[in-house]
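dude i think i finally got it to work??
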Amino acid sequence: MSLSLSRASAFGVILLATSLVSQPQSQTAKPHTPDILGIYPGMPVTAARTVLQKHSSKYSVQNNAMPESGFSLQALDIRDSVSVDLTQAPNEPTVWRINRGQNIWNDNPMSPAALISALREKYGKETMSQDRGGGGQYFFWLFDQNGRLLASADPALMNCTTGGFTLRMATGPLPTATEIEQKCYRSFFAITAFLNRLNPDLLQSYNVELANLPYAYSAAMNTLRAHNASAEKARQEQQKNANQNKPEF
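look at this
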């Protein structure tokens, strides 16, 4: 297997809760656990690329269409993919989210029990789980900001999502946020994984995500402030030129 992992040791589902990280530029204020494939939120971009590439000698790490936003490793022969999302300028480029997904081949099956066993071996007993029907099942491991597993947590955090926030890294968060979004921005430092079950005994696919949303939110606000400052500077320059552009009469 090209990603140096057996299917039975697939990385999975966790949800972490932690306080807002206020300085994305710092490399010393962030916990280094948990991780996916050795990559953790706050990891410098060069180190993260190096670690990810070590998991395949067959495929190369590829930049996103917008290289500053992140990179990925696609192992097409085993339908396994890992993507890494980055903070953007003026922040130092560091990891804020890691996502891994895999479709399970019929000739190399995996059971939900095998996946959950691998997850528990690495992350401990899950804090919460949720069956959303239709073969979909979620497990959540919640941690504090120091990486300590929590025995319980606010069930509302199961509603946090990060997919849409990838678009906000370059533009900044929306000026308004719902109550649940505010909770997520404050405390959703998470790996979330989805188990798509073919039947109770077999998996069809799984998806795993580790994201530090407070860290991402703080970084996006830095980006937004920088954009606003640049726009204001351009506006002032335009106004200055407009005031000096006197017609002759």
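The chain has one domain: 7-244.
im so relieved honestly
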